[in-house]
Amino acid sequence: MERPQRWSTPFGAEMTSEDVEGLLRRPDIAAIESDKFPKHTPLHGVLLNDTRIVRFRSGDIVVREGDYGNSAFLVLDGSLRVVLAPELPQSMLGRQSRRRKGFFEALSQLWTNSRVPEVRDISHYQSQGLRGGTGSANARVFLQDVPAVLDKHRTAKLEDGALFGELAALGRVPRTATIFAEQDATLLEIRWQGLRELRKYDEGWRRMIDQRYRENALKTHLQESVMFSRLDEDALQAVVDKVLFETYGSFDWNVAFQKQRQSGSAKEPGIARQGEYPDGVLMIRAGFARVSVKHGNGERTLTYLGAGDHFGLGELYTAWKNPEISDIALYTSLTALGYVDVIRVPAPVLEEHVFPFMEAPESTTMELASTPVADDAMMEWAVEERFINATRSMVIELDRCVRCDDCVRACASTHGGNPRFRRHGRTFDNIMVANACMHCADPVCMIGCPTGAIHRTVETGIVVINDLTCIGCATCANSCPYNNIAMVAIRNSDGHTITDPNTGKAIFKATKCDFCDDNPGGPACVRACPHGALSRVHFQDFNPSGAA
Q1: d(CA 235, CA 220)
Q2: Exposed, middle or buried: residue 324 (CB in 10 Å: 0-12, 13-18, 19+)?
Q3: Of 424, 423, 418, residue with least CA distance to 489
Q4: DSSP helix/strand/coil, 465
Q5: I need a surface site. Which of 172, 194, 390, 498 has the fewest CB within 10 A?
Q6: DSSP assignment, residue 93?
Q7: Does residue 208 fall inside a structural domain?
Q8: Which of left, alpha, beta for 171 (phi over 0: left; psi -120 to 50: alpha)?
């Protein structure tokens, strides 16, 4: 077979050269300097393979606040509305409204559960505002009364030529607003790879995207950091004007992760190398990066960095404080784990606006580099397995577990007779990470869900699935790099599989651990373990019971 190429799988199967020619006649697309694109990535190819024309009917939700996306949208025709305030209710976005069960309601599950697992009352599905058949990738949640929404919510209008969604697509951060079609609208959806090429080769797009990021997101991001929180408006703007945006690794890291797991070979793009001069502080905006130090012929992992962390501050502050030292260098290296979005703050900016007003950093990477090898062996393993992505891993200490399966039974009792995890998984020494949803910091499972059924709860940040709007397309299950989402055939109260009347095929729903988010006592699996062998942890904070 031929080697798969960059455009072996186009974004839109129905996109034609005629469609591209029509786009090139639009002033905003015609302004792109096509001669700046290389022969292997021509503008025509980007439009043909990395974009698709999508149509929305009045009331259709295009993007939801809090969703993760990998594409941006350009309005070709029609009008849309951005919801500014107040936010739309979660139920209107296709998400479930959170309601905790009472004590007796939770207890009654022990004897009220059906003898048949995965039973559903299909009458609940009929009232959902959902367009498109079960399993259809074109299914959408829609607002059934647009005039009422416009009356109750403050909105802004988007019309022909408006671009939105690019910051979330390139920065791998949640959507910041909900946008719906006020009238029937036609949009050009641009997947992140094509958006990257447009920004890379066309100065106009690069300037527009960078300026929008500086105006809409960067200042807020910097103010959330202790380094810049004390700056006045003028000083903060001076920093905003000088920082650089960088991305490393593959946005779709989850696609290749399983193969890398099997082969044991993973190439991590370098961001900064041990021994190099630090020319600026690196702030992680999204994704993860590995901090390591040379150890023999290889690298030894010390820790990892995620959103909100920074790298190189200690070395730069030392160099500024001790100008007589001319050979300041990085004590450690930084490499991208999957995908990482970085903001580089140049050293001169820090020396002018930050260092004169800050105390010495409490710790440096030099101190990390001197920690004993044995202390970070588990961290090395967690990084390799990408368990660092987890905020709530299910960890079982095997020397305390007696294989009684009380955790499995408790989970089944809480979830209609079918457990939401499997009591097996990857092991390190006497520690096993079971196959249960880890409620990841970078939830790639949420990218591409057509109805927003899989989402984070506003109150707790737990990743849950709204059974009423899940269409069984399996996008989330296929995207999860840890195989922690299962597709199950649902049944009626008689135990018969529910089928689609048009095709006769069984209807499936996505299921996974929801951290017992609606139960008053928290995760049933943890409470049921008689020996305290099971816990739900963030790996940076994890300390096994046998550790000192």
Answers
A1: 14
A2: exposed
A3: 418
A4: strand
A5: 498
A6: G
A7: no
A8: alpha
Cβ count near 468 (within 10 Å): 19
* Neighbour-count burial for 171-188, b at 16+ CB within 10 Å, e otherwise: bbbbbebbbbbbeebebb
Structural domain of residue 455, as residue ranges?
386-541
Strands (E), 373-484: 393-397, 422-428, 431-435, 454-456, 463-465
Q: Are 349 and 277 within one domain?
A: yes
**Same domain assignment for residues 27 and 66:** yes
Q: Domain check: are 421 and 318 in the same one?
A: no
Tokens matching residue 308:
């909100």
Residues 391, 519: one domain?
A: yes
The reply to whether 123 falls in a domain is no
Domain at 537, CATH number: 3.30.70.20
Give the integer Cα–Cα distance in Å for 172 and 3. Answer: 29
- Rounded (10°) angle between helices 203-213 and 192-201: 110
Rounded CA-CA distance 154/244 in Å is 34
Q: How many helices (H) and strands (E) does the chain have?
A: 19, 24
> Are residues 178 and 89 both part of a single domain?
yes
pLDDT along the chain (548 residues), means of 10: 65 94 96 94 95 96 92 96 93 80 66 77 74 70 92 96 91 90 97 92 92 83 86 91 89 79 75 93 93 88 90 91 86 92 94 88 57 66 91 95 95 90 93 96 90 89 92 93 95 89 91 91 92 90 61
- Beta-bridge mates of residue 280: 346
Is the domain of 165 the same as that of 305?
no
Per-residue buried b or exposed e for 502-528, using 16+ beta carbons within 10 Å of the residue's own CB: eeeeebbbbbbbbbbbbbeeebbbbeb
Same domain, 288 and 341: yes
The whole-angstrom separation of Cα 147 and Cα 153 is 10
